[in-house]
Amino acid sequence: MPIKKVISLAGVTDLKKMWEFHEEKGMKSHVSALMGGSPHEVAERYKVVSPIELLPIKIDHVLIYGVLDRHVPIELSKDYYFKATEQGSNVRLIVLPDVEHFKIIDPTSTAWDSVIDTICASRPL
Question: Among 75, 74, 84, which residue's Cα sits nearest to residue 104?
Fold first, then answer.
């Protein structure tokens, strides 16, 4: 069965920019560990894996993001959303106020209702 919709919960939509964010903050980069190096060391890997590099994506997809997220900067999702819509992708960006990174995946949080509503929504993008 083909994939009909993708829902990203505070996902990293641009691996290179996420790596740069970690570098600026002096943090150990989980992206670098995943990719086996920095964007300078393994540039081709970033190009074939990073969601923003794969645009346009013709599958409906939704980005759900919390304003208070300190782990994945909201700019990544906004930049992805604008580039995706410019290229004709079927994408929605849902920004939840007063929600941090881990609340989006916590079924006991109030943010979870928005996630469930998105999953159950019957309307097309």
Answer: 74
* Spatial separation of the C-alpha atoms in residues 81 and 29, rounded to whole Å: 23
- Quickly count: other Cβ atoms within 10 Å of residue 17's Cβ: 19
pLDDT of residue 115: 83
- Is the whole-model pTM more than 0.70? yes
Residue 74 to residue 87: CA distance in whole angstroms: 20
> Residue 80: in which H helix or E strand, if any?
helix 74-86
Please give the share of the chain, as a percent, with pLDDT higher than 90.
69
Give the helix/strand (H/E) hosting 8.
strand 5-9
What is the Cα–Cα distance from 103 to 121, expressed in whole angstroms? 20
Among residues 68, 74, 60, 80, the alpha carbon closest in space to that of 6 is found at: 60
Domains identified in the chain and CATH numbers: 5-120 (3.40.50.1820)
